[in-house]
Amino acid sequence: CNISTLKALKMDDNQIGERCGDVLASVIKSNSGLKELHLGNNKLQRSVLNIAKALQHLSNLESLDLSGNNLSQDVSSEIAVVIDSNDSLKELVLGDNNLQSSVIIILEALSKISTLKLLDLQSNQLTHEVGDALGAVILQNTSLETLFLDNNNIACGMLKVFKALRQIKSIKKLGLQCNDIPKAAVVELSAAIQSNCTLELLTLNNNNLQSSSEVILHALCNISTLKVLEMDDNQIGERCGDVLASVIKSNSGLKEL
After folding, report:
1. Distance from C-alpha of 18 to C-alpha of 207, rounded to nearest angstrom
2. Would you call 56 helix, strand, or coil by DSSP?
C-alpha cells in the first residue's frame, strides 16, 4: 500500500483468504500502473468484490487470474466493469469458480474488446446457453490463442463456439474435455481445426465421441503442429485407431498422446 510502482503482482496458491483480500484492494488502488494480477486459488470469496471494484480504477491491465476463488455469481457484473475499463486485456483466467450462467455478462464485456489472447473458463458449470456469447467473444478477438472450456457440459452450445473458431486462424491451445459435444457439432469442430493450422494442444477427453471421432482425426491429419492430443474415454474404436496413426505421422512434434 505504501508504493505506487507495482506492475505485476503474482500471489497464486497462498490461501490468503477474505481478510487479506480487502487489503489487496488497497494495494491495487495505490498502484494504478498494475498490468498483471494473479490471485489463483486463494479462497478470496466475497473479498473479490472489493478487489474487482479497485481494478475498475486501472486502465492498463493485461492479465487477470482469479481462478479457484469460489467467486459469488454477483462478482461477474463487477468483473465485466473491469473489462470495460481495460481495453488492453490479453489474459483472463476464471476457471474453477462455479460462475454458471452469470458468466454471460463477462462474455458480453469481452465481446467489446479485441485484444484477448487467452480465456480460461474451465470448471464453471457452464451450459449450452453460453454458446452465443462465447461465439461473439471469439469473433471479436481474432488473435485468440488459448481457449480452455474443459469440464463444463456446454453440449449443443459448442456448435456456435466451433462456427466462430472457423473464422479465426490463431488458436494454439483448445481445451474441450467433458462437454458432452454432440455429433452435430463435430463437423464444425473439424472445420475449425483445419482453419487453425497453428493448433498445438487439443483435449477432448470424456465426450463420448465414439465413431464421430474419425471426422476430427481426419482434420488433424491436415495439420503438423500438434504437440498434445488427449482423447481418453471416447470409445473411438478400431477404425478410428487407424486414422489416429495417420495423425501421429503428420505431427512429428507430438509429445503427449
Report:
1. 37
2. coil
